[in-house]
Design a protein that fits this description.
The protein is of the alpha+beta class and about 240 residues long. It is about 20% helix and about 30% strand.
Length: about 240
Amino acid sequence: MPHYVCSTCGTQFAESAAPPAGCAICEDDRQFVGWEGQAWTTLDGLRTTHRVAWKREAPGLEGIGIEPAFAIGQRALLLRAAGGTVLWDCIPLVDEPVVEAVRALGGVPVHLHAADQRWIMHPDPAIRLWQGETLELARGVTLVRCGGHFDGATVLHWADGSGGRGSLLTSDVLQVTQDRRHVSFMYSYPNYIPLGPEGVRRIVAALEPYRYDQIFGAWWGRNLLGGAREAVARSAARYLARIS
């Protein structure tokens, strides 16, 4: 049976003979159901209309996305660190080169914070739930629970990134803005619901122990390639001033 994929958010569901009745991700007030109603595709269907694109983001960091853009349009990041290799974030489409690359690395366990367990739509033995505030995946590669628009929202700190100055892989926990000099913090990006001050302060506090000079966001080109730590402090102050 196929694994249906939501065409609006890109989430893959457990196999079923017919499409699910709805997408719990899109029905949440942080997301939205497509304007034409709930729509589904499958992995095989995506392979006929889209392709996987690889692009170098930085030394040791490869971007993996979909062309043309699909669902929310995010791209994953393949991090090749001295302490190990990590595939950060996910995309709805995989092809044989991606599968072979993952197999060559020995397979990829999926680390998800236990606070977000309810949002797993496709249960799998590869998913490893973790608890607490940090999880070291390899030497110098650490997951940091920040919270924010999801209770278990997590960023990855790469100590050796940016030539040893440190890098953050943030998805949309810290959303790199269009000017690529700031970040923003939202409860819902598509529905423009701001994150409250407690959530912003928690994110800033979670990152305080870490040194970093770069941030790699969730979309192609949404990166801060210098002065990222100062930009986060400046952005948080600006955000809090506006919502207070």
